[in-house]
Amino acid sequence: MTATKKSFFAKFTGQVTLKRGVSAILIFLVIWHVGALFDDWFGVDIIGIGLVPPPADVFAAFLEVIPKIGYWQSWVSSFSRVLTGFLVAMLIGIPFGLLLAVNRYFRGLFFPPFEILRPIPPLAWVPASLIFWPTNEMSIAFVTFLGAFFTIVINVLGGARSIDISYLRAAQSMGASQFDLFWKIVLPGTLPSIFTGAAVGMGITWEVVLAAEMISGGGTQGGGGLGFFIWNSYMGGSLEQIVVGMISIGIAGYLSSSAIRKLGYFMMPWRRLF
Amino acid sequence: MAVKQTLKSKSTKKVVPNDASSVTLRNVSKSYGEVWLSDDVLKDVTIEFPAGELTVIVGPSGCGKSTLVNIMAGFETPDSGEVLIDNKPITGPAKDRMVVFQETALIPWQTTYENVVFGPKMRGDKSGQALKDEAEALLVKVGLGEFIHKYPIQLSGGMQRRAELARALINEPTVMIMDEPFRGLDAMSRSLMQEFFLDLFEENKKTNIFVTSEIDEAIFLADNLVVLSNKPTTVQTVMNIKLPRPRDYKMLTTEQAFKYKKKAMELLHDEAMKSFAVLK
């Protein structure tokens, strides 16, 4: 009885959220449309958006690229670069951050060089990595990795160090070994920060991958990724396609971060409650 | 009231074994910081905690009560002096001394049930159906039978403290160390928890060391009341509270209780004034 009531309620609020989302997007499109055509209607340009193509033209350009295999290849190559860099950053960053947090010798040894490398923006690594890595693909993946790595490590380290000491003490009283403390207190206690780091890191990864693709040039349009797609459209003078590329990136970023949110929701049942 | 009824109606079966140890603090001193700028927190603290009695420690705020708790629990080591359990020195934290912390230390990512079975399961000294039955019986006893699969954040403050009591008791400690366990609860939950806690103590008679800064709470609960001095902390007075057991809240309005309260307040007031004067 309660279950049906609840699911009905959930459906209802779900619809409201959906309606809000759709109307917000529609309102945005109307403003965009008016802004873009303001010049045609009133003969006065709105500085900043006067030259932006109206949504209808962008939509037409979208329809034009959708059947093209090159456009989807851009998606695939950007996504695979993002995922490679991101996953490697997670695989190395999480254990590295945890080690920094739990072992004072390790921290003494590795934290200073880490802190010197951290402020260097990932894009500053692009020229060097293009020279040092044998292929373009590897240098882009490396720069992408850097973008996510530092953020993930800092979040993991901060999260693990801010675990309430009474949890550790309570567990110790009950006979926990170092192994128990790590697996049952430190790791689950750090999960929320791991997911925060992952979400932020994922965002940075997208920023970095696009810039890296623009700088490195990519080669063929297919192998160039969405960043190169935008750059190519700019070179080709297609304003509509530039906007198509931008929106594609927005959608790609949204898909990536909602995947992370879903995973976090699934892995941290105790956080679903507030 | 509801809390007590749940307790009374369900507590026919004995769930917690009665084992109690004596605890002795002998000349315990502790200071923090470098030698040239050290902050003496405890100085020659000697206290006897008789087995099976409830000893309450009160002292002015910031006097080092928590340091004392950490030393007795084995989380910190004293600079000099020693802590004896049944006349044997302690070597670190152990399951014979369970601590109920200020605020809550329930592990947020474990349900109430998982929190309770955490210790025995980890050590592997209880398992399977026997552990499940025992944990459930304990949770029913503390009035949380319906909340065993909830996460701590879904429980009220009073429920969290009771869950924590259950988590401590399943480890069969011989000493319970309570570090201002009811701090942060509203007045009503607090007095209900005090009554609940007393019922539990009067039933299982474990050695209880209860730290608080509330004088009413101290007198209501205590067999022995240890009044600490201002920093560096030493024992100022030990009072025996000879109110009859079982106790209820009405006893706090008797003349006898009032005399204890007056004495304790005067002692504490003097000490509090000293720390106040230091600030000026």
Determine the CATH topology of the largest domain in chain A.
MetI-like fold
Query: Could you give me the name of the CATH homologous superfamily of chain B?
Result: P-loop containing nucleotide triphosphate hydrolases
Total DSSP helices of chain A: 10
Give the assembly state of these chains.
heterodimer
Topology:
The complex is a heterodimer of chains A (274) and B (280).
Chain A: H1 2-42, H2 55-65, H3 69-102, H4 104-117, H5 126-132, H6 136-161, H7 165-173, H8 178-216, H9 221-236, H10 239-267
Chain B: H1 2-10, E1 23-32, E2 39-49, E3 54-58, H2 65-73, E4 80-85, E5 88-89, E6 97-100, H3 112-123, H4 128-141, H5 157-169, E7 175-179, H6 187-204, E8 207-212, H7 215-221, E9 224-228, E10 235-240, H8 255-279
Helix pairs in contact in B: 3-4, 3-5, 4-5, 7-8
Give a description of the structure:
The complex is a heterodimer of chains A (274) and B (280). Chain A has helices at residues 2-42, 55-65, 69-102, 104-117, 126-132, 136-161, 165-173, 178-216, 221-236, 239-267. Chain A has 274 residues and is mostly helical. With 280 residues, chain B is of the alpha/beta class. In chain B, 38% of the residues lie in helices and 21% in strands. Chain B has 8 helices and 10 strands. Chain B has helices at residues 2-10, 65-73, 112-123, 128-141, 157-169, 187-204, 215-221, 255-279, and strands spanning 23-32, 39-49, 54-58, 80-85, 88-89, 97-100, 175-179, 207-212, 224-228, 235-240. In chain B, strand 9 and strand 10 form a beta hairpin. The N and C termini of chain B lie far apart (45 Å).
